[in-house]
């Protein structure tokens, strides 16, 4: 949950990038890290294996600026996508304020996307979080691949996006759709926080 | 600090920093907190697998520095403390002052959440401005 510190007038929100292995979660964070001005971001930490697969998480702190007198920060995390890392995936998901589900648009990866989405719901349930009220955004990555290899955003919406939440086609390597996705989830998280507060 | 600690971070189990004390410029505070929370979460899960009570505190000692991680419950939920100490201190000394810190924090933690308005004034305008300024669109 968001941390609101009234003494220092700071808000810290946690956004988790979820999705199957090799869908492009780390690539999203690397692109954001490379494009955000230095004074608005902290050090990116990656706990990865020797072959650059995420072992535990990637972490990137971002500073959004001041909203209603509060310095607002986002902590971006990725989870390890590989199936057998579920215990660490659940740990990273703990305390999340918003989730970006990064799906692999390749048609042959559809089952992995669905399995990962089911895993997200199961893990949220175990953490006593209601998946329906969690700010969630879909990103359909690798839309730059040849059209005969991938599903369209509409097809992926039909297969994964049951709740009709915002979704974005992307090519995370080149940055297309990366900031649009992050902006959308940031907005959802802060709107939820403002709605939870008494007027 | 009498314990000889170089840096002390107080944080939530999700790795969000609540308070910090010491030479914070020498360490990336937010990254250290995220990593500290991760270490603690991992060992707690291993303890569960072993049907063991969770490890209340962890210690790692290097040549120049040691890190101590301890958890404790307050009326407002669980908190973690990450303490970095140097060769002029010791684990025993850090533990002694950690127990003192825990007792004081538990005594000071308020019972009820006092509701105050968050993000009310100028919310829409400042949200739009901040998002545009960071994401450039």
Can you describe what's shown?
The complex is a heterodimer of chains A (199) and B (137). By secondary structure, chain A is an alpha/beta fold. Chain A has one domain (3-196): Rossmann fold, CATH 3.40.50.300. Chain A is 32% helix and 28% strand. Chain B has a single domain, classed as Beta-Lactamase (2-Layer Sandwich), CATH 3.30.450. Chain B has helices spanning 29-49, 91-108, 123-135, and strands at residues 5-11, 17-22, 57-61, 66-74, 77-85. The N and C termini of chain B lie far apart (46 Å). The A-B interface holds A 1, 3-6, 11-12, 14, 36, 40, 42-43, 45, 47, 56-57, 59, 61-70, 72, 75, 77, 87-88, 91-92, 94-95, 179-180, 182-183, 186-187, 190-191, 193-194, 196-199 and B 12-18, 28, 30-31, 34-35, 38, 41-42, 45, 115-123, 126-127, 129-131, 133-137.
Output the helix-strand order of chain A: EEHEEEHEHEHEH
Tell me the fraction of residues in β-strands of chain B, as a range. 25-35%
What's the shape of chain A?
globular
Approximate helicity band of chain A: 25-40%
Shape of chain B: globular
Contiguous helical run count of chain B: 3
**Helix fraction of chain B by DSSP (H/I, runs of at least 4):** 25-40%
How many beta-strand segments of chain B?
A: 5
Total domains of chain B = 1
Topology order of chain B in helix (H) and strand (E) letters: EEHEEEHH
| Mean of residue pLDDT values of chain B | 84
CATH superfamily of chain A: P-loop containing nucleotide triphosphate hydrolases
| Proper CATH architecture of chain A | 3-Layer(aba) Sandwich
User: Quick one: biggest sheet of chain A?
Assistant: 8 strands, mixed
Oligomer description? heterodimer
Query: What is the CATH architecture assignment of chain B?
Result: 2-Layer Sandwich
Which residues of chain A sit in consecutive blocks of at least 5 with pLDDT less than 50?
A: none
Query: How confident is the prediction overall: mean pLDDT of chain A?
Result: 91
């Amino acid at each position: 949950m968001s941390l609101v510190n009234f003494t220092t007038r700071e808000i810290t929100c946690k956004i988790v990038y979820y999705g199957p292995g090799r869908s492009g979660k780390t690539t999203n964070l690397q692109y954001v890290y490379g494009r955000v001005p230095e004074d608005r971001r902290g050090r990116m930490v990656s706990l990865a294996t020797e072959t650059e697969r995420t072992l535990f998480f990637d972490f990137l702190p971002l500073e959004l600026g001041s909203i209603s007198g509060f310095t607002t920060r986002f902590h971006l995390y990725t989870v390890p996508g590989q199936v057998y890392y579920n215990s660490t995936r659940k740990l990273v998901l703990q305390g999340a304020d918003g989730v970006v589900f990064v799906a692999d648009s390749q048609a042959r990866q559809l089952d992995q996307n669905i399995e990962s989405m089911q895993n997200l719901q199961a893990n949220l349930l175990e953490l006593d979080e209601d998946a329906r009220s969690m700010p969630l955004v879909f990103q359909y990555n690798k839309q730059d691949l040849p059209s005969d290899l991938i599903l369209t955003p509409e097809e992926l919406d039909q297969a994964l996006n049951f709740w009709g939440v915002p979704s974005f086609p992307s090519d995370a390597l080149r940055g297309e759709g990366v900031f649009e996705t992050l902006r959308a989830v940031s907005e959802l998280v802060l709107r939820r926080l403002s709605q939870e507060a008494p007027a | 600090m009498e314990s000889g600690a170089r840096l002390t971070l107080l944080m939530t189990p999700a790795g969000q920093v609540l308070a910090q004390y010491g030479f914070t410029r020498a360490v990336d505070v937010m990254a250290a907190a995220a990593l500290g929370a991760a270490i603690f979460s991992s060992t707690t899960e291993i303890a569960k697998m072993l049907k063991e009570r969770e490890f209340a505190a962890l210690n790692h000692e290097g040549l120049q520095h040691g890190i101590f991680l301890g958890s404790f419950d307050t009326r407002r939920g669980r908190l973690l403390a990450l303490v970095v100490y140097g060769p002029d201190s010791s684990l025993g000394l850090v533990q002694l002052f950690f127990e003192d810190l825990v007792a004081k924090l538990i005594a000071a933690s308020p019972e009820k959440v006092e509701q105050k308005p968050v993000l009310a004034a100028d919310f829409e305008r400042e949200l739009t401005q901040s998002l545009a300024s960071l994401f450039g669109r």
